[in-house]
Design goal:
This protein has about 250 residues and is α/β, with parallel strands linked by helices. The protein folds into 2 domains: about 1-35 and about 80-120 and about 170-250, 3-Layer(aba) Sandwich (Rossmann fold); about 35-80 and about 125-165, SIR2/SIRT2 'Small Domain', CATH 3.30.1600.10. It is about 40% helix and about 15% strand. The strands form 2 sheets. A 6-stranded parallel sheet has the order 3-2-1-6-7-8, sandwiched between helices. Strands 4-5 form a two-stranded antiparallel ribbon. Helix 1 packs across helix 12, helix 7 runs parallel beside helix 12 (about 235-250) and helix 10 runs parallel beside helix 11 (about 205-210). The chain binds ligand BJW and zinc ion (ZN). Zinc ion binds next to loops. Zinc ion binds near residues 155 and 157.
């Protein structure tokens, strides 16, 4: 079987399943032109995470960190979902119980039409005040453009991106939903994630412990590849449309 091929077992299990869960990471958005974190040329080759993606770095230099997120927000807004995102939205439409758990903050799954999306690490389109938690307005965000830190109009606290940094708790409701979907899933797909950041990386393994057939789709083997049932090596924008088409054909 060529590396980018998937098994008949996976296709028939997907076609029969009443509950499917999926975990996505930065790799699914790579073909939309959004750099991943850890691949060569990834976001953290140019920007050190420890300098930018934690609360201490933010408090030390809010303009730098806000500016980095403003830059990424504009990249995300200018790009489009790719065939991988659209294939998952199609799969959701033909499965009774479908949960898409994503570590991505780029909003592309929702833009591609996925509905039951669980955002584990937040969403880059949100910004809020670190003191009073009020959601920031466009106007408040404008300060960054002139080199000032964006501050809350109500209490003048710094405004931070609505994402989860290292050392921070993930949103409780999202984690609960993700764990429940993983425990209930008959098939679980782990797509475009290096599976090194916890607790997200543990979710496919939780699904496996609870009896799911777990497949990974990635251009390289991830940190959990040895523990899953099937690894499909290839770009998700190529593999997913073919896989979902095979599932639809079997269901017809
Ligand atoms: C393709 C492709 C193509 C490319 N097609 N594939 C247990 C054990 C050890 C450590 C911990 C643990 N529990 C918690 C920790 C600490 C920490 C952690 O995990 N550290 C590890 C690094 C060791 N976790 C946390 O701090 C988390 N919080 C937490 O656990 O709270 C409880 C707690 C509180 C206080 C103290 C202790 C515990 C929070 C984690 C937050 C992660 N945040 C970030 C930044 C978000 C904001 C932003 O975007 O700036 O989330 S980090 C970054 O990594 C981002 C991503 O969502 C996340 C995962 O990365 P991802 O998506 O996997 O991307 P890459 O680049 O790593 O991989 C891309 C993959 O795609 C590669 O495999 C490619 O091959 C592939 N690929 N092209 C298919 N076309
Ligand atoms: Zn405030």
């Amino acid at each position: 079987m060529p590396e980018s091929a998937f098994s008949d077992t996976l296709v028939s299990r997907l076609a029969r399943a009443r509950r499917i869960a999926v975990l996505t990471g930065a790799g699914i958005s790579a073909e939309s032109g959004i750099p991943t974190f850890r691949d060569p040329g990834g976001l953290w080759q140019q920007f050190k995470p420890e300098e930018l993606a934690n609360i201490r770095a933010f408090l030390r230099n809010p303009v730098l960190v806000q500016g980095w997120y403003t830059h990424r927000r504009s990249i995300a807004a200018e790009t489009q979902p790719n065939p991988g995102h659209y294939a998952l939205a199609k799969l959701e439409a033909i499965v009774p119980g479908f949960t898409l758990i994503t570590q991505n903050v780029d909003n592309l799954h929702l833009r591609a039409g996925s509905r039951n999306v669980v955002e584990l690490h937040g969403n880059i389109t949100h910004n809020y005040c670190i003191d009073c938690q009020k959601e920031a307005t466009e106007e408040e965000m404008h300060a960054i453009a002139v080199g000032e830190p964006a501050r809350c109009g109500d209490c003048s606290g710094y405004i931070r991106p609505g994402v989860v940094w290292f050392g921070e708790m993930l949103p409780e409701e999202a984690v609960d939903e993700a764990y429940e979907a993983a425990r209930d899933a008959e098939v679980f797909l782990s797509i475009g994630t290096s599976a090194v950041v916890y607790p997200a990386a543990g979710i496919p393994l939780l699904a496996k412990e609870h009896g799911a057939y777990v497949a990974e789709i990635n251009t390289e083997r991830s940190a959990i590849a040895d523990e899953v049932d099937e690894v499909i090596l290839g770009p998700s924008g190529d593999v997913l449309p073919r896989l979902i088409e095979a599932v639809r054909a079997l269901k017809r």
